[in-house]
Fold these 2 entries.
Entry 1:
Amino acid sequence: MALLIACSSRAEQFAHEIHALDPGLDLRVAPDVGRSEDIDTALAWQPPPGLLGTLPRLKLIVSVGAGVDALLQDATLPEVPLVRFVDPDLTGRMAEYIALHVLYHHRRMTEFRELQAAKVWKYLPEPAAREVRVGLMGLGVLGKAAAGALRPFGYRLSGWSRTPKAVAGVACCSGPSALDAFLAATDILAVLLPLTPETRAMLNRGLVRRLARSGRSALLPGPVLINAGRGGLQVDADILAALDAGELHAASLDVFQTEPLPAASRLWTHPRVVVTPHNAAESNPAAIARYALHQMRALQRGEALANLVDRSRGY
Ligand code: NDP
Ligand code: OXD
């Protein structure tokens, strides 16, 4: 029984960590697959297309990412159980990222940075956190953790998901019919949705126009978008057009339609955009190693697998 690491980056790091935990394990690193019949588990992140489909005894795929959209795009991906990465280290990092960027925009840091560059000493009105409406798109593992990180500040939290949810301190709603009301009551939109056929290109100009622009939080100059889900959720050109038209005040984007973000993209230089390199919540190699071995052993003992992906839903 062998474990194959099929990852486009950090494969040697994962191998090092797994070997440290289980030196006796038959561990292979793609492209050195060896006898393909030996492999029952694959740890995967952007594996070479088609590779996993050539493993005749593969029984489990462990995704290095929490999001599995890229894996599911491979039509040759074997129909074996696929588990995604869910881990307190990753969850904590994402909660930090969302809290950091909500605070950044609530406290009008975009404008303070501009004022600093111009050496202008100027006060700007800032609403209290209790007046700012933060809408979380996606109330899964990461959306709930983000809510937990934001709650102590007193923000008015709401959340939108596919199916009904109950999250302490969050006004929850679900499904397409609830989306308009959710957006209309959102000043800062934080997106933690998976990329699926239903969610692709959702963050477009039409959606931005449905965000709140007035009311108790009119002290904020306009709506803000934070996207740490997937780049395919957003239409980069629409975000830029909405920013230029003043329909969107600012954005923090960790993910992009094309990654790395091409040098020619105006998102790099737009004064109201914060760009981060898809690092909102990186998977920690030691945690990945523990997780992959835990899932592999559960499989071998015939135990239930945690965090199974529902392929029909796409997440
Ligand atoms: P989960 O599967 O736990 O949660 C996904 C949430 O999205 C659920 O609440 C789900 O609804 C909701 N959802 C899915 N489809 C729809 C839809 N059509 N309409 C409304 N809501 C929908 O995922 P995680 O929270 O663990 O991760 C979310 C995403 O974050 C990942 O898929 C990945 O793309 C991204 N990510 C990004 C990282 C980064 O560094 N930028 C790092 C890690 C993850 P329901 O609860 O009803 O199922
Ligand atoms: C993930 C990611 O899905 O890092 O875990 O994007």
Note: The chain is about 30% helix and 15% strand.
Entry 2:
Amino acid sequence: MDLFEYQGKQYFARYDIPVSPGGPADTVDEAVKEANQAGYPVVVKAQVQVGGRGKAGGIKLADTEAEVREHAAAILGMDIKGHVVKRVWVEAASDIDEEYYASFTLDRAAKKHLLMLSAEGGVEIETVAETNPDAIVKLHIDPVDGLDSATARQACVGAKLPDRALDGAADILVKLYRCFTEGDCDLAEINPLILKPTGEVHALDAKVTLDDSALFRHPEWEVFGATQELDEREMMAKEKGLQYIGLDGDVGIIANGAGLAMSTLDVVNQVGGSDIGGGANADVMAGALEVINFDDNVTSILINIFGGITRGDEVAKGIVEAMGRVDLRAPIVIRLDGTNATEGRLILENAGIPEDELRSEPTMLDAARAAVSIANEN
Ligand code: GDP
Ligand code: MN
């Protein structure tokens, strides 16, 4: 679950990471109230889960109540890269001497946590990685050892942070690491981490992704869940008990098992995908097809089933039944393998569905090629 900046900052504050005083506002009047409370000058910041808000006009400084009104009115309702701003965060403005970057993630390949730290913050880290990769310090942390302040300080020295920022930055890194581990984050990122003229170091932005698998031990996450923006397709899937991930692209994918769904995505690239889980009966299949069908970008549907618990004949019956119930906007290409695949293919063949509505391919790669080629024609 991705948090909005203001929620990320609230989460940071629990771990004692310094953030500016401020508050969320859904209306201009609320924004003024928060500004008066925080003290001028303030920054009015659009709360959308997309980067580059500043450049898009979603972050404005305000010196007076009148300016808060003006900026909040302009930013609320603004469309930033397809995200409509419903809430702003108003906080006391900071004076900035320097902007840094700091983040913790899990490096699955190394089986360790990864700290990335750079003196070049305030810009997308991907850009720094491209133009000046040496400016990023990468430090693997063994979860058993954790991160102590001496090691954190060394990382800051390695990233060429100035002497006067070292203590403050190292202190925040240790706290951010605690937030990342104890707080069960997949990502804890501060960009920019700022150095103020006073020498204080401080989180000016917050990007936090919580690990949904840890939800059971964080009842306090419920408030975050309530504000999550599921897209329409995802809500529809949720109602049907399906695992669905809405993506851009034109091949709709249905597979059994999240792993297979992901590798199918890899093979096809650029698609929306749905995982129908273990029991693929007619209802489940019809549900998955309805969700995929709802997305009018989809011009071909790829069903990739490797039957284990999922039985090929059940899947096939499901598809035939579902095709009778759902008026599909796009043709289906299916790869059916594993348990009872032969029986399944026979059911499909005997169903008398025309070739241009349903076609079967022997391998995942063949099926992906066929689905992509159909999508390209349409
Ligand atoms: P993002 O661009 O969406 O990641 O939004 P950020 O919260 O990172 O802000 C973008 C930029 O706006 C920062 O890098 C700062 O340069 C600027 N900014 C944000 N808050 C303040 C502030 O309190 N004071 C000043 N002077 N600049 C700010
Ligand atoms: Mn930022």
Note: Residues 163-182 form the longest helix (20 residues).
